[in-house]
Amino acid sequence: MSATVDVLAVLKEKFPSATPRPSLDLPAVNLPVGDVPAALKFLRDEQGFDFLVDLTAIDWAEGVAPRFTVVYHLLSTVRHDYIRVATDCPSDESPAVASVVSLWAGANWHEREVYDMFGITFTGHPDLRRILMWDGYPYFPLRKEFPLAGIDTPLPDAEIMAETGARVIAAPMAGGPFVAAPGEINLTEAEPRAKDESWNERRAKPDA
Amino acid sequence: MVTTNTEIAYNSKIEGEVIVSRMDSVINWIRTNSMWPMPMGLACCAIELMGTASSRFDIARFGAEVMRFSPRQSDCMIVAGTVTYKMASAVRRIYDQMAEPKWVIAMGACASSGGMYRSYATLQGVDRIVPVDVYISGCPPRPEALLDALMKLQAKVRLERSATNLRRA
Ligand code: SF4
Q: Which residues of B fall within a CB distance of 8 Å from A139?
């Protein structure tokens, strides 16, 4: 653990704006958005954190400020240690952080996915397009206000929509999200199923 | 037809090399026994489709072993897996490129109904964009179930009025 304490202390010394971030597992640190590229470069080049394991984001829900947090997980293949760096996006309406594709080429698709799901833009990204949903999809599905079932929208291909009459519909939930029961010995019971079967497409959901 | 032949079965001495049948059954016989699949493998069900094609289950026994990756050479699209909305347009386009006559098997819960993916990204049943002939339940269905579906489809094709349809086309 000594190496762990070291890197946080060293980072704090170099970037006084860094504040410790509560964490149950990895050493973690909060940084203001402006310091992130320099701090990540410092961690990569001088502290041996050479591998970007994950780049993701958190939506703390509408009305919470700051609303969006971008999270970086780094691994050092030299020290065999992880570190988590988090930064709050200054704007809740048009969240943006600097791209780290120039530090790790692997950040490219991670940033595209975060953009696709949360609508956070990465300034300086070489090719910031949606990666999972199609171009022109009007929503950001992992934002808290977006319903799991989806929202009625046109199909990505207008020609096929005209031909088939199909649309992107809000999926029928038939009694809540389908979930499996983990740790169930009886495999039939563990099968994915709607956990609340008191309602379905034909019978409306009872009020609370 | 008036004939002096009292034999019920085919008699080569009398009929020589001629076999009398109906156009429909000849065409259907040809179609059912060489139904080349278009493997639309989109998710985990595709693994089971591959298993069905391999030696243990051997879909060749039913004349459907020639998986064609060109829609223009295939007769039966096997939609094996989760159809996302993004993929749906490609599935429909490939279906459109297949030559008539063509059939569709929806393999597994996902292709049939969206399965457990009641979500914003998944097409809730491939029958929303292409006409499906046979649905297979299961997640994933066992290879036997796919073979059963193929036999059901063959039984269905055997009843088609192919000759009439040909004349109309
Ligand atoms: S039905 Fe099950 S096995 Fe088949 S594609 Fe869907 S999730 Fe995978």
A: 120
